[in-house]
Structures are given as structure tokens and as C-alpha cells.
């Protein structure tokens, strides 16, 4: 068995996951980064994207993260997510409707703050749709 480390995924509502894992790929603000046991300490903002969890060299779970930040130590990766949902639980038609509604909201915005809020929500919804469409990382090289 490969070396493992503790992954903790926390949302504002609850602790979503706390278990030993082999590797995770985190959607960092400056690009995806992989974490394995013994990783150098790091703190990173998370952009809306997919957290990939690996066991046995393959992705066993993918979770959409709406944003947040990750703290990595040699023994643990803690992710404080603004929102998290398993990719398999995302309903494509709901996300497509949300995108349509948000585009309408941007067009109807009465001020810059309202428009900026709708644009940020649209970016998250579009990233969620991208998570559904993107294949998981493949094992191997």
C-alpha cells in the first residue's frame, strides 16, 4: 500500500470528508497541484474547479469546489471550501439553467456591485459545468 496522508474537506456547513488518501489534485488559484504524503508545507487559494482524489493510482472521487483555500503539511491536506459537491451529483440541466439565469442577471444589473456579484456566480457555474464535462485524470505516467 502506498503512503497515505489525511485529507480533510470542510465546507461552511460541515466536515464533508476526513480520511487517509494516496494523492489529491487540488484546483489551485495558480493551477492544479498534486499532494502526496510528505508534501512540503503550502497554503493556496482554490479557484472553482475539481478536486480529484486518488487511491491505487486512479481517481476514486471527484468533488467540485466553488473556491476556498488549502493548507498542506507533510501529514495532512485541509481544504476549506466555499462550497463542495461530488461531481457525480451535479445536475447538468440545473447548472445550464443557472448559467442562463445568471447571464440574464448580468444584463439586467442595475449597478456595478450587482453585475460583479452575478459575474462571479456565473464563473462558478461555468466551472461546475466544466467539471461535469472533464474526464478524470488517468492513472499511469
Number of helices: 2
Say which CATH homologous superfamily of the largest domain is assigned.
Answer: F0F1 ATP synthase delta/epsilon subunit, N-terminal
The largest sheet is: 5 strands, mixed
Structural class: alpha+beta
What's the helical proportion of residues? Answer: 25-40%
- Uncertain runs are none
The CATH architecture assignment of the largest domain turns out to be Sandwich
Name the CATH class of the largest domain: Mainly Beta
CATH topology of the largest domain: ATP Synthase, domain 1
The end-to-end span amounts to 19 Å
The geometry reads as elongated
The oligomerization state is single chain
Q: What is the averaged pLDDT score?
A: 91
- Kindly estimate the percentage of residues that lie in beta strands according to DSSP: 35-45%
The radius of gyration is: 16 Å
The structural domain count equals 2
Strand line-up across the major sheet: 2-1-9-8-5
Amino acid at each position: 500500500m502506498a503512503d497515505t496522508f489525511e485529507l480533510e474537506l470542510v465546507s461552511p456547513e460541515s466536515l464533508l470528508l476526513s480520511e487517509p488518501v494516496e494523492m489529491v489534485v487540488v484546483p489551485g488559484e495558480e493551477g492544479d497541484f498534486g499532494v502526496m504524503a510528505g508534501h512540503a508545507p503550502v497554503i493556496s487559494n482554490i479557484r472553482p474547479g475539481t478536486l480529484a482524489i486518488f487511491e491505487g493510482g486512479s481517481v476514486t472521487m471527484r468533488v467540485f469546489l466553488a473556491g476556498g483555500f488549502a493548507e498542506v503539511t507533510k501529514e495532512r491536506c485541509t481544504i476549506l471550501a466555499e462550497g463542495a459537491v461530488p461531481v457525480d451529483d451535479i445536475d447538468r440541466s440545473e447548472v445550464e439553467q443557472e448559467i442562463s439565469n445568471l447571464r440574464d442577471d448580468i444584463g439586467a444589473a442595475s449597478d456595478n456591485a450587482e453585475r460583479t456579484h452575478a459575474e462571479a456566480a456565473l464563473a462558478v457555474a461555468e466551472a461546475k459545468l466544466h467539471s461535469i464535462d472533464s474526464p478524470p485524470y488517468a492513472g499511469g505516467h
